[in-house]
Amino acid sequence: MKMGNLKNSHLIEGTIWLTIVLVFFAFTYDFNQPIEIYKFGATGWPRVILGILLFVTLGNLFHQYRFGSAAQSGRVGISDDDDEADGTTSIGAVLKIIAVLGTPFLYALSLKPAGFYFATPFFIVFIILLFGERRPRWIISITLLIYALLLFLFMMVLNAPLPQGNVSPFYDYSAFILRMNSQFQQLDLW
């Protein structure tokens, strides 16, 4: 059976993403409860995100079916042919992939002791470094921009409670950020 330009690696990747969508969709039934102010209930947005992920995964499979992994102008990364040229994958590339995939898990583990407010800038810096940026000015400015946008989104727009941490210096930093937010929101700017 001809599978277009799909390779085994494409099918494995697609299967992994589809499995993630299905598993998380099944988990949404554990907290499927109505919410008075939101017509779609507690599972509304998680299911929208999963739908988007499903759409992107199927679109990616379709694109790979039609075009494979041919190098395209403006595309970041390498094609499958570049990787298969010498038949080996460097240990450095494997370690980088493991680091990129493992960093969010380490970040999630750090949220309970260190809290969102303290751990997030370090997570952003580490991800930027993993993706190859080495210019200090860019690292600092991008980190500050993303951190400020996240704080604005979660504190001002969504007014969502975030993990504060339970270890003393981290908890104190979180308390400082929350005090500043409270004082800012009490200002009558509008």
Q: Give the biggest sheet.
A: none
Provide mean pLDDT, rounded.
Answer: 84
Termini separation (Å)?
65 Å
* Structural class estimated from helices and strands: mainly alpha
Low-confidence stretches: none
What string gives the helices and strands in order? HHHHHHH
Tell me what portion of residues adopts beta-strand conformation.
under 5%
Number of helices: 7
Radius of gyration: 21 Å
Beta-strand segment tally: 0
What is the molecular shape? globular
Number of domains: 2
What proportion of the residues is helical, as a percent range? 55-70%
Describe this structure in words.
By secondary structure, the protein is mainly alpha-helical. The chain has two domains: 1-86; 89-190, no CATH class. It is 68% helix and 0% strand. It has seven helices and no strands. It has helices at 8-27, 44-67, 80-84, 91-114, 116-130, 136-157, 168-186. Helix 1 (8-27) runs antiparallel to helix 2 and helix 5 (116-130) packs antiparallel against helix 6 (136-157). The longest helix has 24 residues, at 44-67. The chain is globular. The mean pLDDT is 84.
Write the layout of secondary structure elements.
Elements (H helix, E strand, L loop, with lengths): L7 H20 L16 H24 L12 H5 L6 H24 L1 H15 L5 H22 L10 H19 L4
Helix pairs in contact: 1-2, 4-5, 5-6
